[in-house]
Amino acid sequence: MKKIILIAVAALIFVSVSAQKFDKIARTPPMGWNSWNKFACNVSETLIMGMADAMATNGMKDVGYEYIVIDDCWQVSRDENGEIVVDKDRFPHGMKYLADYVHSKGLKFGIYSCAGSKTCEGRPGALGHEYQDARTYAKWGVDYFKCDWCNTTTQDAKSSYINIRNALFTAGRPIVFSICEWGANKPWEWAGEVGNLWRTTGDISDNWNSMISIFNQQKDLARYAGPGKWNDPDMLEVGNGGMTTEEYKTHFSLWCMLAAPLIAGNDLQNMTPETKSVLLNKEIIALDQDTLGRQATCFRDNGDYQIWIKPLANQEKAVCLLNKSDEKKTVLVDFALLAQSRGGRNGSAPMKLENYTVRDLWDHKEVTLKETSVYVDLMPHTVKVYRFTRK
Ligand code: GLA
């Protein structure tokens, strides 16, 4: 009997030691680049090295972007020992070499697989090889792992991802774990203990309707996010050409208000000055990266016109006015009321406007208020983003 109890206790201790995620990573939403949105299966060593070079030198690294993530299609098969085989034509020096290269630029390296038997593009998935792959990734120097949900047939999402989390933890290298099951099994309810970010919807496309419809689906999810655990409304499309610069500013602002991961998905080697001015807006990025780690909530919803509030550290806050409609809107904005409003059910304490400066984060200017209420013009599909900073 004693023996049985001892074994049971030992098993419990083992489970509690192995069943956890790394807790010191992704304390603010991860920032980086992923190959999928622009390049899909057209990935190669040259491409990835080029993106690392670009990120390290074009100002992105300086404002906080760090992960270079290869999405689907880098893998072709498994060898006789079940080891994953890299596409040798596209990645002639293998993944360790590439990881070392990315690290040599002061950046971090990410990779992709799938919880099912095959990836979405039909490459070998992780099913049955979770621990083996996790050891391989740790050996290569992987820092970020995106795990998809194709070809999972009858698998249970929560236990599949817990198994992979445990595999990563056992392999011993802290790896940001990005769960990509498209919100199908309400990951926000269970993934906080499992991964560092979880997709909340299907895939984004590079157009206004797709972007804004994904944004609309984030409304009730704020309470699930926080340091180390983020809702992921999918990667950015900024710079891919399907939206206007104003729409990309809106896309970027909304993602930052949501404390979403900021994973660029454009060609970093060919960025227009407009694309740079969006992806490198430090003041907007600072909202996303705020250490309080709170996702914005919707404070006023007049359909096409909404006001979102994001509580920030140090009793500060960000306010975003959004015009989703195809028409220009002129709205009366009461800054004293916005200062007072809590912004969500456990939002910031009410603030007195006179103790704060208000800054327009796209105009890069302080707002001078003669009256506390002013009329603001919002062009179609645009935002105004204000930061209330303590005087
Ligand atoms: C799914 C994911 C995408 C991308 C592709 C790759 O659709 O949601 O983000 O990773 O698979 O095949």
Strand and helix map with partners:
Elements (H helix, E strand, L loop, with lengths): L1 H17 L12 E4 L1 H4 L5 H13 L9 E3 L5 E4 L5 E3 L7 H11 L3 E7 L15 H11 L3 E5 L8 H15 L4 E4 L17 E3 L8 H9 L13 E3 L12 H13 L4 E3 L8 H7 L2 H7 L8 E6 L2 E8 L3 E8 L5 E6 H6 L15 E5 L4 E2 L6 E6 L3 E9 L1
Parallel strand pairs: 1-2, 1-10, 2-5, 5-6, 6-7, 7-8, 8-9
Antiparallel strand pairs: 3-4, 11-12, 12-13, 13-18, 14-17, 15-16, 15-18
Helix pairs in contact: 3-4, 5-6, 7-8, 8-9, 8-10
The structure holds alpha-D-galactopyranose (GLA).
Question: Care to describe what's here?
Answer:
This protein is of the alpha/beta class and about 400 residues long. It has two domains: about 20-290, Aldolase class I (TIM Barrel), CATH 3.20.20.70; about 295-390, Immunoglobulin-like, CATH 2.60.40. About 30% of the residues lie in helices and about 25% in strands. It has helices at about 1-20, 35-40, 45-55, 95-105, 130-140, 155-170, 210-215, 245-255, 275-280, 280-290, 335-340; strands at about 30-35, 65-70, 75-80, 85, 110-115, 145-150, 175-180, 195-200, 230, 260-265, 295-300, 305-310, 315-325, 330-335, 355-360, 365, 375-380, 380-390. Strands 9-8-7-6-5-2-1-10 form an eight-stranded parallel beta sheet. A six-stranded antiparallel beta sheet has the order 11-12-13-18-15-16, with helices on one face. Helix 6 links the parallel strand 6 (about 145-150) and strand 7. Helix 5 crosses helix 6 (about 155-170) and helix 8 (about 245-255) packs parallel to helix 10 (about 280-290). The longest helix has 17 residues, at about 1-20. The model is unreliable at about 10-15 (pLDDT under 50). The structure holds alpha-D-galactopyranose.
